[in-house]
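Hi U.,

Before I forget, here's the chain from the pilot set. I'm dumping it here mostly so it's searchable later in email.
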Amino acid sequence: LVTNMAGIEDGVLPLSALTTAWMNEKHAPELLRFDEEAFHSVNSFLQEKEAYLRELTMDNQETMFWANLHQFQINRIKYLLTAYLRTRLTKIEKFTRYILANQIDRLSDPESHFATQLLERTDAHLTASFLKDCTERLGKLDTPEMVPQPNLGACVPAYCNVDLGRVFLASLQQYVELPRATTIFVPYEDIIDYIRDNRITLGTRTL
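Structure:
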């Protein structure tokens, strides 16, 4: 059992990558690209190991102890998967129309289906409830002032994974020194590129 479950402790799985994806998603004001590789790798691992545990014969105390221990670890990882999806769904619900118009490539297939259905049903409900009685100008839902958009200028906690040296923050019109292992609160729009190439992780410490 210990050998078969060693993937968790040995870091074979991309748990660190998924945790980073969750932290970035949690702190970023906009929806980030779905980390399909990390998510599906961890999810497949869980399904495989849960099937393995179900087939175990609990015929002695030692087997039961290790099975319970690893089940506890698996449950913690399942929480990570769920938290990642829940964080993304919250943004999708808030910025549905904006995401479908500008960031649909960041959605997984199930998320894309969910967002499309949500928008269609919400529009139908609002139209049937009161928009049908409004003037043409007031009855539109896709005008810029009616579409919620993420605030890219919001300040976020950023942890430097590498020494970035002297960095110019365009929104603040100033330079700052960002050595490795530094945490700084900074406008999100100034560090987007650093997040994409993993030089910066959102949050207060490395994971």
